């Protein structure tokens, strides 16, 4: 039976928020990764866009867990998440050149089980391996303007077409464009490929193509106008950020993002409390 990456990622994706004390809150998206320690001990890592945490000045944020009751119904159960020390210094790990952050968390057992394996994130050659390019459809999960799919707090699933070329290598093209509307609250959400049947170059049979391509980190703006194009940071940099928790230093910084003529704006934002 085919596995469903969409459902697995929905379960692993959470809303991140922090009240700002004036009736508003800042909201973003994150997702959980199962990333064991070097000695094999289980470990759950939350990843999101670094600017999501940057815009949360207090020591604690809230992470939007969902709990399934004995009758099968789900309820939203946000819990405190410490993101800064007592001096309000960040305790998350930040990638040195990309808008990616990672932090080890103690998730409820149900959520620890929902964390996706690190191996599901695209490798540097994944796009080339499957001949992915402009026009291919990818999915994105998030909480646009803090909106969830339902009262249980599940993320909203949307789709868009790859809008840039080429996609590899990530050392030269660390981000790519996705044609869909980006809203405050989408930052940090996973972008993934979930195609039921695709024939690789030179192959005679079609196969499933399912992997996490990257993380939504920005939107494209030009002269103050939103172009309804999202900027996706390659999964390679999520992998590198998780590895940094264990002291692994990423390789030298890649070249600047493209297109160079566009300005970009962070897609997290401030929202009125419901």
Question: Helices, strands, pairings?
Answer:
Elements: H1 5-12, E1 13-19, E2 24-34, E3 44-48, H2 50-54, E4 60-68, E5 74-82, E6 93-94, E7 101-105, H3 109-114, E8 116-117, H4 126-129, E9 137-142, E10 156-162, E11 175-179, E12 190-198, E13 207-222, E14 225-234, H5 235-244, E15 263-266, E16 269-272
Parallel strand pairs: 2-8
Antiparallel strand pairs: 1-2, 1-4, 2-3, 2-16, 3-7, 4-5, 6-7, 9-10, 9-12, 10-11, 11-14, 12-13, 13-14, 13-15
Q: Can you give the helix content as a percent range?
A: 10-25%
Number of strands: 16
Helix tally equals: 5
- Helix/strand-derived class? mainly beta
Question: Largest beta sheet, briefly?
Answer: 9 strands, mixed
What is the CATH T-level topology? Thrombin, subunit H
**CATH level 1 name:** Mainly Beta
- The succession of helices and strands, N to C, reads HEEEHEEEEHEHEEEEEEHEE
Mean pLDDT: 87
Number of domains: 1
Question: Which descriptor suits the 3D outline?
Answer: globular
Provide the gyration radius in Å.
Answer: 18 Å
List segments where confidence is low: pLDDT < 50 over at least 5 consecutive residues. Answer: 258-267
Strand content: 35-45%
Name of the CATH architecture: Beta Barrel
Question: How far from one another are the termini?
Answer: 41 Å
Fold and architecture overview:
With 274 residues, this protein is mostly beta strands. It is built from five helices and 16 strands. The strands form two sheets. Strands 1, 2, 3, 4, 5, 6, 7, 8 and 16 form a nine-stranded mixed beta sheet that branches. β12 (190-198) and β13 form a beta hairpin. The longest helix is centred in the last third of the chain and has 10 residues, at 235-244. The protein is globular and about 50 Å long.
């Amino acid at each position: 039976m085919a596995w469903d990456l969409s459902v697995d990622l929905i379960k692993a994706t959470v809303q991140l928020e922090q009240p700002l004390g004036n009736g508003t809150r800042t909201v973003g998206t994150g997702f959980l990764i199962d990333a064991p320690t070097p000695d094999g001990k289980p470990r759950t890592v939350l990843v999101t866009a670094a600017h999501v945490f940057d815009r949360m000045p207090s020591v604690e944020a809230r992470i939007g867990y969902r709990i399934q009751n004995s009758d099968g119904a789900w309820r939203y159960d946000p819990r405190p998440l410490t993101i800064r020390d007592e001096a309000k210094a960040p305790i998350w790990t930040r990638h040195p050149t990309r808008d990616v952050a990672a932090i080890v968390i103690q998730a409820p057992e149900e959520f620890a089980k929902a964390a996706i394996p690190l191996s599901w994130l695209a490798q540097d050659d994944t796009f080339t391996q499957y001949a992915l390019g402009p026009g291919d459809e990818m999915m994105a999960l998030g909480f646009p303007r803090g909106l969830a799919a339902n009262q249980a707090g599940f993320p909203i699933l949307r789709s868009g077409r790859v809008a840039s070329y080429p996609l590899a290598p990530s050392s030269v093209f660390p981000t790519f464009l996705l044609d869909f509307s980006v809203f405050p609250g989408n930052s940090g959400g996973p972008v993934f490929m979930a195609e039921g049947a695709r024939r690789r170059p030179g192959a005679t049979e079609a196969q499933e193509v399912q992997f996490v391509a990257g993380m939504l980190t920005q939107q494209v703006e030009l002269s103050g106008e939103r172009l309804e194009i999202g900027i996706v940071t390659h999964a390679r940099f999520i992998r590198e950020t998780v590895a940094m928790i264990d002291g692994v230093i990423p390789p030298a910084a890649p070249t600047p993002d493209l297109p160079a003529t566009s300005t970009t704006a962070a897609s997290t934002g401030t929202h009125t409390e419901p």
